[in-house]
Write a structure and sequence with these properties.
Layout (H helix, E strand, L loop, with lengths): L3 H11 L6 H12 L5 H14 L7 E6 L2 E6 L4 H10 L7 H13 L2 E2 H8 L4 H9 L3 E6 L7 E5 L1 H7 L26
Antiparallel strand pairs: 1-2, 3-5, 4-5
Helix pairs in contact: 1-3, 5-7
């Protein structure tokens, strides 16, 4: 099945989100009107991954957020940085980043719980995070008034290049400064 890598390459290239192997299988099985074994798809994905590791390509095929996506290699960071500067409207503000961090570590969480942690109103930040699909509504709390519960979305994983919440930095990963204000010295 030498044709599989080229078809998979086209599917992954055209998808704006990481493409899961089950979705690849569905598309190709429909196209060829026969069930494509997962083992053949995995072998083709391995071939493609190796192909794009060579220096002649500026991007690589990466497994991210449970699917496959083409990502630019780190050597081209400065070129991409210029493009991203021009697309800065998509960047997150400090308030949005703080709110998103609270949601990521405390999910599912209500807006009032976020505001209690941040000490300020979070309406605008939560709205912008919902618009950018980084946050999703996860249901309603059982507490009084049944407030909405928020959590991260698959787009969050993609945005930060992680496969799961277990890959988020843990407090032990943060370096504590020696002379941090507010810490008592012994």
């Amino acid at each position: 099945m030498d044709f599989l890598p080229r078809h998979i390459e086209a599917l992954v290239f055209c998808s704006s989100d990481p493409l899961e192997i089950t979705e690849i299988q569905k598309c190709l099985s429909e196209m060829f009107e026969t069930e494509i074994p997962v083992e053949h798809l995995e072998k083709a994905l391995e071939e493609l991954t190796e192909k794009y590791l060579s220096e002649e390509h500026s991007f690589s095929l990466e497994k991210i957020a449970g699917g496959y996506q083409f990502l630019t290699k780190p050597a081209y960071l400065s070129s991409i940085a210029i493009l991203q500067k021009h697309q800065s409207q998509k960047r997150l503000s400090n308030a949005q980043l703080e709110t998103l961090a609270i949601i990521a570590y405390r999910q599912p969480i209500t807006k009032s719980e976020m505001e209690q942690i941040r000490g300020v109103n979070c309406d605008y930040s939560v709205q912008k995070l919902l618009e950018k699909s980084l946050v999703a509504i996860k249901g309603k709390s059982d507490s009084l008034g049944r407030p909405i519960l928020y959590g991260t979305s698959p787009k969050f994983m993609e945005y930060f290049g992680i496969n799961g919440l277990n890959e988020l930095p843990q407090p032990k990963d943060f370096k504590v400064e020696d002379n941090e204000i507010g810490n008592e010295s012994d």
